[in-house]
Predict the structure of 3-isopropylmalate dehydrogenase.
Amino acid sequence: MKARIVTLPGDGVGPEVTAAAVAVLEAVATHYGHEFAFDEHLIGGAAIDATGEPLPAGALQACKASDAVLLGAVGGPKWSDPNAKVRPEQGLLALRAGLGVYANLRPLTVHPALATLSPLKDEKLKDVDVLFVRELTGGAYFGAKTRGADYATDECRYTEAEVERVARRAFELARARRRHVTSVDKANVLETSRLWRRTVAHVAADYPDVTLEHQLVDSMAMLLLTRPGSYDVVVTENLFGDILTDEAAALAGSLGLLPSASIGEGRTGLYEPIHGSAPDIAGKGVANPVGAILSTALLLRHSLQLEAEALAVEAAVDHVLQHGPRSRDLGGHAGTADVRDAVLAALADRA
Ligand code: ATP
Ligand code: MG
């Protein structure tokens, strides 16, 4: 198949891990007979330096016209003045809003070979295979904000339609997995959570083959540590999702390992590793590219519907995590390029 993929390397380690991810997509194209056209644009601090804007209009235009967007990371100390008029993160928010990607997907698995890096013990980590679906465009992050002399407010607002569309995504995704959805809210206290719970339960009626369970966010924070193996798809609102997915990331052993996908109504999805720009290791060639490489598997799966190719990339990464080489965050000495080359070799073996 033919596909147009926009790359937004961004800041810090973003360009390093994105280059590795592009190499993997190029190898997939070669091995499986596809034609991927890459188009690189600026975002974040790099875009501010070059154009004054965190997401130049041309970049957003190109993203909207593409099949998928592969993002590195944005931000860094150079642009972190809180009083600055333009900040790198604004580019990311504008991109999400411009693409209308309302569901953020974060798969979590713990590779057996890396279990020692996790704060949890082996037996707890067995069978951990969770897909978080975080609502990305509503709630307190986007509600009206006010600040008085001695108070501040953040309005948390959700409409039924906003809850319904992300809940539907979660149930659809559960159908392709173990058919279990855990919906997380704070319905004993928050009105938005009562709307959330009622709407999710309503959507569940259309999916009689999927089991729905409700959890309060405080108990979910605990359950993720005490029995992470018992969850399949976990769907929740923006703020709760932000917190729970960072907690979950810690279980995997390193931030550098985990991918994410943001999808919406349109065909274009946004794919990025969950880690930030990692300024402390930027430019040294030591960043772990696995989170970015696994993001290409999500891209192949969710935007291009190339499931076999997605599985091949995941299997190649599994092989490298098992047999090495390992980057420094995983206790090894390998650089970004070493890990990339090992994944490329494992991919070639499987093609
Ligand atoms: P942001 O504010 O952009 O989300 P953050 O505060 O979450 O950033 P990161 O940039 O993700 O921080 O980095 C946190 C720590 O994890 C740093 O010490 C960084 O070096 C490390 N880290 C992040 N990504 C990687 C990676 N791909 N490989 C190795 N280490 C990483
Ligand atoms: Mg962060």
In short: The chain has a mean pLDDT of 96. The radius of gyration is 20 Å. Residues 13, 17, 73, 75, 255-256, 275-278, 280-281, 287-288, 291, 329 surround adenosine-5'-triphosphate (ligand 1) (CB under 6 Å). The longest strand covers residues 2-10.
